[in-house]
Amino acid sequence: xxxxxxxxxxxxxxxxxxxxxxxxxxxxxxxxxxxxxxxxxxxxxxxxxxxxxxxxxxxxxxxxxxxxxxxxxxxxxxxxxxxxxxxxxxxxxxxxxxxxxxxxxxxxxxxxxxxxxxxxxxxxxxxxxxxxxxxxxxxxxxxxxxxxxxxxxxxxxxxxxxxxxxxxxxxxxxxxxxxxxxxxxxxxxxxxxxxxxxxxxxxxxxxxxxxxxxxxxxxxxxxxxxxxxxxxxxxxxxxxxxxxxxxxxxxxxxxxxxxxxxxxxxxxxxxxxxxxxxxxxxxxxxxxxxxxxxxxxxxxxxxxxxxxxxxxxxxxxxxxxxxxxxxxxxxxxxxxxxxxxxxxxxxxxxxxxxxxxxxxxxxxxxxxxx
Length: 370
Prior knowledge:
With 370 residues, the chain is mainly alpha-helical. Helices cover 63% and strands 4% of the residues. 50% of the residues are buried.
């Protein structure tokens, strides 16, 4: 059975619970509270779907598609079929990591976060693990359809996700592993997009075949996937900073982590505004007037979304404010991706990415991204 069909076949049974448990409803910024219901009654379909939405942190999903779009912009190409496959792969692997994360942390969450879906009995541990495996298989299947190079990057991404959740999360390598995953995710978009225009040439490996530019602007200049590495490293550095703060969200008490993250975010914002050096590198896509106007706007949105809650967490490192800083850091990935796309000469792609912001903000009011 193909992985995608396997997910569809498993979901009806996986959405059930092991035994009768109280129905929960969301309260506040992603917290949960018992909903009025008959004692011992089996939760309804809506309650089960809500539990899975909380487990998978669906509000954070909107921070994922921009990776592939920024990767496509970094190689000087418009999004295509390969980009869409990369987005699908990223979404599957991201949600696989979320399910696996709660499965791996089920004992710790029983103490620190008893309201989470697994310790509260709303989702069975074996169901979460099965979904993590099925989504990983589905993601790799989509990546394979984008070509062997994309599959190789996706395999490294999947391995990083599983290693983080099962082994590295509570070690000093945890933030670095998360940063690596985001770096690979952007490179996946670049690789899958560039694959569409790469054609073999006898005795010369591969060359880039330029995709016609029909926008009336300068001719498009395609680059190899390696050209996306600077943008990928910027996104990885942001992820490192946010992950370092998230290690304190359950208990709070750390002023140093949000302060260090705040300094890092300010540096990344300045680096994005400075643009990418061209000496010794591939040709740079000409920056349009729209790009010059939108880049500061996107960078400003990134700093405002991330820096303000980090500053508050540094002043008062309580668990609620630390969690809010982590949530802001996750949402800030969207304007950061938009800024990276605009810097690479794709302001339209940046606007498309920014269109996800109101959706992410609205859903975050119902399901916490952390």
